[in-house]
């Protein structure tokens, strides 16, 4: 296992973590001149590996440092990255990645790939089952909001229907609109009932996935 002193870890975190976030957001170089000149390439490699970065990231580091006439220490970087990947490619981490719905980029070494992939897929099943529950809950809430609005509209039309001074023609229109609102209300109530049954099934499936998972 690689040992890093606090200064190196801080430098690597800045170089391979915060600056990578900046790269994704702004398209900036992965490392600036100072970081290239003072880089601990083994530590940077470890940090890249530990977060599951693709092997192609070294090309971006190389390009960033080439602007300052500096070349990465590829041997040290690869050594560090391989050690970092051993941290990243643990089964429990694979499960957590899948559970969060995060992508896996196929970076794990062959000797641990199968176990990591199995754990990742188990986490992904849990993520998918949870997502289905949340989605159905959201649909139910939306339908209930529609139903609430429809009830208010129907009540308003019913009140207008019995108001004095309403013409016969308008009263006929209000009656038709009230009946239509009643039909729509009945249809939405049926949809909500069906969604609630679906939600119950999905919750049972989620419970089964949780119970069967060996990684929780």
Protein architecture, described:
The chain is mainly alpha-helical and 216 residues long. 78% of the residues lie in helices and 0% in strands. It has 2 domains: 6-88, no CATH class; 127-212. The protein contains 8 helices and no strands. Helix 3 packs parallel to helix 5, helix 6 packs parallel to helix 7 and helix 7 packs antiparallel against helix 8. Mean pLDDT is 88; it is low at 1-27.
Please give a quick description of this structure.
The chain is an all-alpha fold and 216 residues long.
H/E element sequence: HHHHHHHH
Main beta sheet: none
Give me the number of helical elements. 8
Strand content range = under 5%
User: What helical percentage do the residues reach?
Assistant: over 70%
Shape by Cα distribution? elongated
Topology, please?
Elements lengths: L5 H21 L6 H5 L3 H10 L6 H10 L7 H15 L2 H10 L9 H52 L6 H45 L4
Helix pairs in contact: 1-3, 3-5, 6-7, 7-8
Kindly list the characteristics that best describe this protein.
216 residues; disordered N terminus; 8 helices; mainly alpha
């Amino acid at each position: 296992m690689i040992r890093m002193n606090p200064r190196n870890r801080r430098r690597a975190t800045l170089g391979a973590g915060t600056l990578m976030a900046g790269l994704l957001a702004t398209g900036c170089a992965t490392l600036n001149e100072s970081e290239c000149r003072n880089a601990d390439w083994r530590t940077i490699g470890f940090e890249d590996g530990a977060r599951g970065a693709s092997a192609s990231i070294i090309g971006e580091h190389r390009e960033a440092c080439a602007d300052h006439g500096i070349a990465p220490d590829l041997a040290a970087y690869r050594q560090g990255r391989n050690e970092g990947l051993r941290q990243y490619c643990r089964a429990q981490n694979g499960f957590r990645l899948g559970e969060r719905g995060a992508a896996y980029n196929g970076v794990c070494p062959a000797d641990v790939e199968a176990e990591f992939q199995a754990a990742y897929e188990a986490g992904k099943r849990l993520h998918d089952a949870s997502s289905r529950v949340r989605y159905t809950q959201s649909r139910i809430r939306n339908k209930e909001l529609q139903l609430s609005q429809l009830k208010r509209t129907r009540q308003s039309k019913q009140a207008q229907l019995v108001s004095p001074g309403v013409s016969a023609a308008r009263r006929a229109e209000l009656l038709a609109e009230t009946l239509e609102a009643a039909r729509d209300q009945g249809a939405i109530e049926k949809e909500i009932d069906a969604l609630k049954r679906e939600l119950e099934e999905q919750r049972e499936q989620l419970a089964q996935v949780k119970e069967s998972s060996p990684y929780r």
